[in-house]
Amino acid sequence: MSDCASCTVRCRAICASLDPDEAAELGKMGRRQRVRAGHTLLWEGDEAPTVANVLKGVLKLVVAAADGREQIVGLVFPSDFIGRPFGKQSPYRVTAMTDAEVCIFNRKSFDEFAERHPHLQQKLLHRTLDELDRARHWMMLLGRKSASEKVATFLLDMEERLPNVDGTNAEGGFELPFGRQQIADILGLTIETTCRQLTRMRADGLVDLPSRRAIRINDRVAVADMAG
Amino acid sequence: MSDCASCTVRCRAICASLDPDEAAELGKMGRRQRVRAGHTLLWEGDEAPTVANVLKGVLKLVVAAADGREQIVGLVFPSDFIGRPFGKQSPYRVTAMTDAEVCIFNRKSFDEFAERHPHLQQKLLHRTLDELDRARHWMMLLGRKSASEKVATFLLDMEERLPNVDGTNAEGGFELPFGRQQIADILGLTIETTCRQLTRMRADGLVDLPSRRAIRINDRVAVADMAG
DNA sequence: CGCTGCTTTGATTCGTATCAATAGCAGTGG
DNA sequence: CCACTGCTATTGATACGAATCAAAGCAGCG
Questions:
Q1: Which residue ranges form the domains of chain B, and what is each CATH number?
Q2: Low pLDDT (below 70) residues in chain B
Q3: What gap in Å lies between CA B215 and CA B207, rounded to an integer?
Q4: Residue B1: its pLDDT value, please?
Q5: pTM of the prediction?
């Protein structure tokens, strides 16, 4: 059983919609689990045994083809919700990109609990609508943008979603929780193309790449311009 | 005010979750409206004044760039729900592809009504989850599939979603509610590439193209194979 | 120090976009 | 019924961007 009182994401996760009694009930159903970087929590086509809240770390949602091609269709951060409630099989693979910690529930119990708690469903609905908006805008990127536009858009998006490296919202840049191949899988590019675009942007002074995974945007206007 | 009793999509739309009294209340809030082919119901960035159910026709959800590039991010069929409930601005343009008929609601009134009717929210949640799954699988297509795979996937998807041309589920093929440019905008291709792929498939005997918009799949296995 | 795995750079190929022209159909009016 | 017009679809030639193939550079680690 989880210790909801000490939960780091309590106020931002869907659980925030519950009063103390309800939270206690849900808490009894869930348990914390560590997921090592690279390990998979849910497989595509699984009979969706679980749903979960993310407490720590970053996970990816992946759709894979038979021949090995992969497209990352979503990133999941702390306080985000994972899984497919209401009786469908898991539509994609969920894999940890960093060491992560999640609070998992048996799907059936969760469904039943949700059924009895409209507030929870409402929170879930809001989240799902936001995710849908995000996914659809990413479709525009995947279908219509050039490699340079893709990379520029990606950098701005990551700067917004990732915690700033030196705490405040200063100009410290940010640290990606994954490598070049993953960027490529997010953008629908190859690793080489992704790399070349980044190199070019550095050469043009738009960004600094202080280390493999760290990025600092120097000229936000130019990058936004490039994002199309 | 709408005449819910005579509504053709009543049993499939989100309204199906309501009892007669509730339906009557919602009915008072909504009104039917025709939308001509090509006309836009909702603009991207609008303060999302309305939501609606589709009664008849097909509409598209479009994300457009400043320079005119367009990506269709969703198709909306009868009984589907349109709009962005809960206080967000409309994230995409909604345009009718055929003459259509919708049952529209003032968004604020609808939000408030939904707030009081958990069943409705639940239906909405189910739909939104399904749409999200669909969108994310389409991301795989847009980011990773080749032109031929895209077109093959598209044909199978349309055959499944569109009514069969001769009523039954026989081999009569189906009729697209839109032209080649729109297919291209769905697949993230140009009209020329789309066209060439279709021509090739016809030459290979995989499909017949009896008229501009009609399509008949001859070799479903081969097409599925091609879809990757 | 020398692995090992990731990243970067380079040379070449290939697929799709682009540009341009032609063909075919639908609607209009003579 | 046919000529005319406008639009959509098809076909062709070429250009360009990204993928692929190949090799070298670089960091982390035993």
A1: 4-142 (2.60.120.10), 146-227 (1.10.10.10)
A2: 1-2, 165-170
A3: 7
A4: 52
A5: 0.94
